[in-house]
Write a structure and sequence with these properties.
This protein is an alpha/beta fold. The chain has 17 helices and 25 strands. The chain binds adenosine-5'-diphosphate.
Length: 550
């Protein structure tokens, strides 16, 4: 027997109209690429999105067509989030920090028909254009006064929407219709497209607003430091209109000072971003001697996208915020786990609860997790046994766009490529990416744990650990350090690490460098480092073989 309840589809246009109706005057503040600070509200966001929807249809954008963006976090990019998905087309957000060859590949693979770009990317668009196979319309996301220097034939966003009606009847269609397309950075092989649906996006947005999710609410003023081109900015553009949270968009300015000034001026209570962004933020605060605790109203900070060193989490506490990690990937919506301690953890000391918040977190409702060994057997969730993390749920991918790559198995379990432990309560600790783990004599050494320990040393600004070849142990850890000022003494640094990790984990050597390579989303580029140190000869081996270490 079927229930007798309405089957209203979960559509992204519903989020926008809900906010326009019930949170009409809540602000959306945006630092634009033209340089000014713009104030919108959910009412004006909805009006402008409807105008844009009319303009897109006039341009010939139809159901299922891909509209690509090369854009920062601004009001116009947000309007595209709602207008494109709202008419049943697919918003294809592209990471402008990738190499031009990768960008051409991605935009062609997606078959994008329109390319919307911020004026800061005019040169990039001119460079990409000869290689773009399907793009029919180029639109500069600006007003008539800033069209100088834009690639020939580009349309002007403001001119395009100005004559349109602000009334628009959003079409109603199947909630499983595709709404967004994001490509993973492709650390191995070609980037692969993850195709989100209206349904997955709305369920994910509802989860963000749960206390056990990100607790996003209309009490929040959210500083969105995650780019709109990075996995739907972790779903915040959709969660915010759902609950009526104020949105603060930093535009192209993600440096510490710009973020601080904006957070202060807009009374931001909540923010989220990758560790590199937070490092820049904290460096600015500490370097300028600011009293962030009294100047900011920041209550909660989510750190995700890659492992956050504990030292960084502590620094974030100093501004008066409660920092938490969250874990996920493009293929998981992205938010799958959030480090929200349980009620029973109130019994723990402050340090105990802090340690829990430094873990990847526990699954939010809807997300199922399990750990597997190499032979495909499920491992115990005992908090100590590491295995490959698999995930399934209503906002987990069922296969890549174009059918490439390896999707989930027949039961929906998707292999994440992350190595983790999991407690009985489901608290996950990511110990490594499967390809980054250091295999020493049949045992595994966690590069993340070693990096975390190294970054607690006062003279270490950033650290990375990679495995280098060893004839007896197969691989041994090499610690690559960006020193904070004067480099620490190698022996003293090893001694320091002994306080945190097993003796046999200690790196066999330490190399000091000026900077470490990062991916387009600000993660340590381990593959690049591994390549760089593939032939590295450890000092103890150099002595025996007579070869000098590099
Ligand atoms: P890409 O693979 O394109 O960088 P994602 O943004 O999807 O794209 O990255 C997902 C990966 O980021 C995860 O599989 C995991 O390795 C890493 N990651 C995300 N959050 C965390 C976290 N809190 N701790 C450790 N690693 C994380």
């Amino acid at each position: 027997m079927l229930g007798l309840m309405q089957e209203r589809p979960l559509l992204i246009s519903g989020l926008l109209e809900h906010a326009a109706r019930y949170h009409a005057n809540t602000e959306i503040v945006s630092k634009t690429c033209e340089g000014d600070l713009r104030r919108d509200s959910y009412r004006t966001l909805a009006e402008r999105s409807r105008k844009l929807a009319n303009a897109l249809i006039r341009m010939g954008v139809g159901h299922g067509d891909r509209v690509a963006t090369l854009a920062w976090n601004t009001h116009r990019h947000l309007e595209l989030y709602f207008a494109v998905a709202g008419i049943g087309a697919v918003l294809h957000t592209v990471n402008p920090r990738l190499f031009p060859e990768q960008l051409n590949y991605i935009i062609n693979h997606a078959g994008a028909k329109v390319l919307m770009y911020d004026i800061t990317f005019s040169t990039l668009v001119s460079e990409l254009r000869p290689g773009l196979e399907h793009v029919e319309n180029y639109v500069a996301m600006t007003d008539g006064g800033h069209m100088d220097g834009m690639p020939d034939g580009s349309l002007c966003y403001e001119d395009m929407i100005a004559p349109e009606q602000s009334a628009f009847e959003w079409p109603v269609f199947d909630e499983n219709t595709a709404s967004g397309l994001c490509y993973t950075s492709g650390t191995t092989g070609n980037p692969k497209g993850v195709l989100y649906s209206h349904r997955s996006t709305l369920l994910h947005a509802m989860m963000l607003c749960q206390v056990d999710g990100l607790a996003l609410s209309n009490h929040d003023s959210t500083l969105l430091c995650v780019p709109l081109f990075h996995v739907n900015a972790w779903g915040v553009p959709h969660g915010s209109p759902l609950c009526g949270a104020k949105l603060v968009l930093p535009g192209p300015h993600l440096d510490g000072k710009s973020l601080y000034d904006l957070a202060k001026a807009e009374g931001c209570t909540f923010s989220l971003g990758v560790p590199t962004v937070w490092m820049g933020f904290m460096d600015y605060i500490e370097g300028s001697g600011l009293d962030a605790r009294s100047e900011l109203k920041m209550e909660r900070v989510i750190v995700g996208g890659s492992a956050a060193p504990k030292s960084l989490m502590r620094r974030l506490e100093s501004i008066g915020a409660v920092p938490r990690q969250a874990w996920g990937m493009s293929e998981t919506g992205p938010v799958a786990t959030v480090a929200n301690p349980l009620f029973k953890h109130n019994e723990l000391s402050d340090d105990g609860r802090f340690d829990l918040r430094c873990m990847a977190g526990r699954p939010v409702f809807g997300v199922e997790l399990r750990l597997m060994d190499d032979e495909g057997r499920e491992l115990a969730a005992d908090g100590v046994t590491p295995g490959e993390l698999q995930v399934r749920g209503p906002w987990v991918t069922s296969g890549y766009f174009g059918g490439e790559g390896k999707g989930p198995d027949a039961d929906g379990w998707f292999s994440t490529g992350d190595i983790a432990t999991m407690s009985e309560d489901g608290f996950v600790r990511i110990t490594d990416r499967a390809k980054d783990v250091i295999k020493s004599g049949g045992e595994w050494i966690s590069s993340i744990d070693l990096e975390d320990a190294a970054m607690r040393h006062p003279k270490v600004a950033e650290a990375a650990v990679v495995g280098v070849p060893h004839p007896k142990w197969q691989e041994r850890p090499l610690l690559v350090v960006v020193p904070k000022g004067e480099a620490p003494d190698r022996a003293e640094l090893r001694q320091f690490l002994m306080g945190f990790v097993a003796k046999w984990w200690l790196p066999d050597d330490v190399v000091f460098v000026e900077s470490l390579p990062h991916t387009a989303t600000g993660k340590l580029q381990k593959m690049e480092l591994r390549k760089q140190y593939a032939q590295y000869v450890l000092p103890e081996l150099a002595e025996t073989s007579g070869r000098a270490a590099e």
